[in-house]
């Protein structure tokens, strides 16, 4: 992981240590070590050879890129690359031929395929059904109860060749990321760092990804990134990272020692993600609906006081629930503004103007003034005060985040 300075580590704790339950309940990332039952039965059994045989000719989704960046979304203004369908053995063959000189061998590959997806047509290869039964389902159920995160949403397999990274993003479900073969390095940012990572505007195809790159920080463009504090997790075979929802993370495969070779040698990398729980927005949405109904048209302008921003940021940093509430509120208000202005860009400009207090000088009774007041009151209901509402507007629009900073995409 390319970092400017040493980072604190995600705690590594024996899977059966008494403290694990507390970490799960508090929504704190943790690396479970010492033979976690979730994958203990298949570590060392699953390999590229065994999975090639198990999947046979069944097609899998494989991300293909000429860079090390697997953005998951490809096209103009998004990532460079695409997704191909190919059997597992074809993925292995293509990945193992990298660097041999042909046009196709300049590519990097990253396979992802669901193994279990409750409620959908079962996708498990017949040859893997017995081995999947050997996973630690009882342990997973107990861990999910401790984390108040039910039910299982999907079990997904990741396969790479030791090169590649998924850019910094968040997921709306909890994840037990289990390493089967090879190594991964993961940067983890708590939810209160969301605004300092500069998420793509809500409604953008990549709106769960950060525009700022923690590995190559451009503090001239994204100065808030200097405030974002990451933890780092190193995953070896048998390790399981508990990654609570809405924690930002950047995942990089770590190749075997290659002595400076370029490209690095073929280095099989296998992981499983057990996605559990829901988005956790049900209670928030109910409150948001109530706040919207309660918001009344009025005139006022909040004072722009930096001390309020510091107090608001401190509250979010010390309370995970407050950070999640602020993040959901920001996404909600971005959606509302885009609908009001019938444009994501115009909605962003509108919120940027509100953050600067420009609405105080807009004509009384104008539709823009009324819309501004409604948004401020709705945020105040959700966040507890008009000062917090003003602080959130400044945080979510800081440094031109919504004013055309995101590239157009197709």
Automatic annotation (TrEMBL):
Classification via InterPro entries: Cupin_8, JmjC_dom, RmlC-like_jellyroll
Pfam families membership: Cupin_8 (PF13621)
Coiled coil: none
UniProt cross-references to SUPFAM superfamilies, sorted A to Z: Clavaminate synthase-like (SSF51197)
Domain JmjC residues, every copy: 102-293
Name of the molecule in the record: JmjC domain-containing protein
Taxon lineage: Eukaryota, Haptista, Haptophyta, Prymnesiophyceae, Isochrysidales
